[in-house]
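Researcher: Here's a chain I'd like modeled. Treat it as a single chain, no partners, no ligands.
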Amino acid sequence: MARSTRCLAEMLGMGEGHLQNIICGRRPSYGVAVRAAKLAGVTVERLLGGLAAADRCAACGARRGAP
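Model: Modeled as a single isolated chain. Structure tokens:
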């Protein structure tokens, strides 16, 4: 497993095999989602939600560059 994946697994407090299962599509537990959100500095909802449009503010949805 790559060094960065090993490091991330350690930061999330899990084994490398568990993280690899999540990477391959297994759903993470709530605890893992909370730890990942804290590491990323976002809410769990934001972490698990859909992608935001590139031309919109991720916080409020306003179009970027609009007056």
